Records
---
Amino acid sequence: MNFKLRINNYINFSNKWLTKFVLVWCSISLVVGVYAINDLALAIAAPLMTVFMYFAGMAMLMFIIGFQRVNPFNSPKSKIVDYAIIFFWCFGVFGFVNFLIFGIFETSEFENSNFFFIVASVFPLGASLGAAKQWEKSSVEE
């Protein structure tokens, strides 16, 4: 499949580096939040919640796609699972960029909401990681 060859490098790269990126992002956010934000609860809770939601998103997406792999109505020759994996991987990357841009450029009436959006912007990458892990499974099965 031609589309698999083109996108394979990006997905394999994300499978290798996304977790490290999210952990570094949240660690830096924790340090910055403790020193720069006057709400200590937000400065501590936002990075921890982001890491939790990142891994929860990864696990949920892996479960959903894994369930669809054994779906008796899904033909082995069907490419629907591969297209779903690509969709969720792209959706996670788009969600990250969208939340990050919103956190940087949007103004809000709520105090420290920009900090929250910037910190939490990495949690959609959990879906990208779950999709990348399922992509790796589908590559091994072929």
---
Amino acid sequence: MDSQFRLEGIYNTQSLTFFMSFGVKNWSFDFRPKSFNFIQQYVFNDCLKLLQDSLSTHFVSMRFLNEKDFMVDKVINDLKEISPLKNLSFELSDISDVTHAERNNIPFYWHYDFRLDSSVYKNPLLKGIILSAADCQRMQASNSLGHFIIELSKLKSDGILKNQELILHFDWSQELMSSVLDFLPINTFSLPINHQIETGYRQVNQELFKDHWTLLKKQLLSNGSTKSINWP
């Protein structure tokens, strides 16, 4: 499977339209009220309407944290009136939120928490895990990255995470370690919409984004293991 790119924290249709022009087809919308990228439901609905004719080729995840059942259910029920729930998933980081996925029978991505005995890794709705490049750097500093890569590879070979996708989250100015790129089967590279590509609050700077996008391509293409990246 070719690697692809995902943008996190889309907060309006204007930014979504701009990023779509670069061929990006994987999106994360943040429903956490305290997040700088929090999106109101009506804006999210507008974004989904914009993607409505191409949802078969786009992938959308909805990030929740400790949200009330009725709020999550309302988002899902409203979506059903916009479009079939195809290529939609949850994005979770607290075990209590897994019930949202189970109640609505929607697959979910899990922010890796290093608790390998957690039942979440055996949940049939688990679509993939999200690993932070910052965590990898901390492990590198403590000389534990190699052990982690071996353990994660063992989980995949043992079948626990055999078919799950692996998403690597990192920031625009973060240098990706070749040890991670070479030895982890990354399916998706995930980047946030934040101050590094904005000139003000929720004001995407198109030139800044283009500059970072170009540098990102150079960085990844300089690593021999990333030839399978599906560039937009």
---
Amino acid sequence: MKNHFLSPILLFISLSVLFPVSVSADCPPCGPDFCKNESRYPVALSSKKQRLLQHDYPEYLVNLLDKGSACVARVERSPDGFSIQRVMPNGNWTISSWSADGERKADQDLIAGRLKSFAMFNNQHAFACCGDPDYKERQDYDYALDINKSIAIVKN
């Protein structure tokens, strides 16, 4: 009978030798893309932010990418755009793609009382890098709105 436990370990060691990646010694075995503050993270983040700025997203939205866990997987898997969540006075809400006109309209609706609040974000839910809790287990998670508020711009 084969020892199936050793096969994945040998595969990991073989791949590590063939494709070395700089990972801190305290990184859990989740894979290098999920390790926090791995050496490729600053470059991946900077590249993503530059792409978004070139697509005319405002800097205050692009800077939302600085919030949240610092792993390559979060940067690579995050959307190449932003969303806006409009919360009605009765608590119902909708999410749509962000646009400058949409944000302007949301501001006007908030002032006029047609909205209770609105939020703008790149990711509705916080991404879990190695060792991070699930987005619903974080202190900033709003169950009623299904959003992690610390990675969003929220206007009331």
---
Amino acid sequence: MSVSNEDIESGLEATDHLLDTSINDAKWLLGSVATLGFLVIGLGLFASTLTV
């Protein structure tokens, strides 16, 4: 049973789409974690100024 070029191309398109989606999700996750980290650091600095 041979594999047609259409099957190969559709498989590559699906792989490219999944890769693009994964990269986009990773960017959003990294941005969210960085934002949360800066928020926690900012609140910690603010809290430390109130205690002194």
